[in-house]
Amino acid sequence: MSAGTARDDDAALADRLAARIRAHGPVGVDAWMAACLGDPRHGYYAGARKGAGPIGAAGDFVTAPEVSQVFGELLGAWAAATWELAGSPSPVRLVELGPGRGTLMADALRATARPAPGFHRALDLHLVEVNPALRAAQARAIGRQATWHASIDDLPAGPAIVLANEFLDALPVRQLVFRAGAWRERMVDLDAAGRFAFRDGQVVEAPALEPGQEHAREGDVVEMPEAARAAVAAIAGRIAREGGAALFVDYGPMASGIGDTLQGMRRHALADPLERPGETDLTVHVDLAAMARAARRAGAQAWGPVPQGVFLPRLGLHARAAALARGATPAQREALRIACARLIGDAEMGSLFKAMAVGAPGLPVPPGFDATPPSG
What CATH number does residue 90 fall under? Predict the structure, then answer.
C-alpha cells in the first residue's frame, strides 16, 4: 500500500488501512498481511520494535537459533555436508533467508570453520533481509564479509546452499472460506463500529486446492500460500539450473489440509491478527508438503517434511549437546538440557516444526532426510 501524500505517510498504519477500505472496499487477507508486515514506514518488519527488535525476550517471539547454539551449529554442518554431496562447488553462494539477528549464521560459520575449511574457502555469503536494524545486528554477529539483499530475486547466479528458518511463515497468504457450496475470498473490512473484521468476499472459481483440501464443510477455511509457493519455486528453479540445495525449517502440518492458521504474536503471547496493525507479528502455519510439490514442479528434487524432533537428532544433536556439556558447570548443563528438550520435544518445537530440503537433479539424499519417492 502506498500513501498519496506526506500527511498520509505519517499517519498510523491502522488509520491508513481504514481509509483504504472506506475508499476502495475490503482487502484480502494476503493484502492485509503484506501491509501489516511490509509497509515501508510502519510495517512490522520495517520498523516495529526498532529498539529491541522483534526477536528475543524483549521482542515478540523466540526462534530456534536463540534457544540454543546447537541449532545453528547443526544447520551449519548440514550446509557443509550437502555442499560436499553437491560436488564441492567453488565459489558457492551460502544464503540465509530472513536471518533474524544473525545468530544462526554466526553459529553455523563458527561450527564449520575447523572441520570444513574447504567449505569456508569456497563460500560467498549472502543474506536476504529488509530491516536495517536487523541487518546491522547480523553484521555484528557474523563478523565477516557478506552481501545483503532485499529480495531473493536479487541473489547472484551460481551454485547455492540456502538456509531458511521461519522465513515462509511470514509470507502473505490468501484465505478462502466455504459458504453455501462455494469457496469465497476471505476479506478484512470495517464493522459498524469502525473496527477491523473478517467478512466473506466474492466467489473464487476452481481454486487450486492441495491434496487433502478437496472435501470441505460449511465454514471451513483453506489457505493459499501463493507467495511462499513462488519463493520456493524460485529457489528450486535456480538450484535445478545452477546446482546446490536449500533447507527450509518452519512450523506447520505434515500434510496439506483445511484450517485457519493466521495468528498474531505480541510480547510472546497470542494476539488478534486484526488489532494494532504494524505492531503485531503475523504468521501462518507452513504447508511444507505443498512447498515440496512446488519445488518438484520447478524441476528440483525435494525431501520431507520431517519433524524437527526427528531431523535434529539425525544431524547429531545428542552428540553435540554431550560435547558442549563436557567441562560445563552444572547450571550450564541443565540449561543445555532444557534448550535441547525445547528444540526436539513433542510438547515443544519437536513436532510442530518440520524440515524440508530441495536439491538439484542428481543430488544424493541430504543429511537428515529419507530417500522418499517424489510425489505430486
Answer: 3.40.50.150
Residue 202 belongs to some domain of the structure: no
Whether residue 76 lies inside any domain: the answer is: yes
Number of domains in the chain: 1
The grid coordinates listed for 171 are 509470507
Quick check: bond before 91 cis, omega within 30? yes
What would the pLDDT profile of 105-154 be if each residue is shown by its tens digit?
A: 999 999 999 999 999 999 999 999 988 889 999 999 999 999 999 999 99
Residue 357 is which amino acid? Answer: A
Q: Is the distance from CB of 220 to CB of 258 less than 8 angstroms?
A: yes
Mean pLDDT, all residues of the chain: 92
- Render 297-343 in DSSP notation, one character per residue: HTT-EEEEEEEHHHHHHHHTHHHHHHHHHTT--HHHHHHHHHHHHHH
Residue 199 is assigned to a structural domain of this protein? no
Span 324-356, pLDDT tens digits: 999 899 999 999 999 999 999 999 999 999 999
Q: Which helix (H) or strand (E) holds 135?
A: helix 132-142
Is residue 4 domain-resident?
no
Only one residue has cell 466455504, namely 178
**Residue 347: which domain range?**
64-171+225-252+287-359
Residues 5-31 have a mean pLDDT of: 83
Residue 251, H or E segment: strand 244-251
Q: What is the DSSP string of 167-182?
A: -GGGS--EEEEEETTE
C-alpha 228/C-alpha 169 separation (Å) is 8
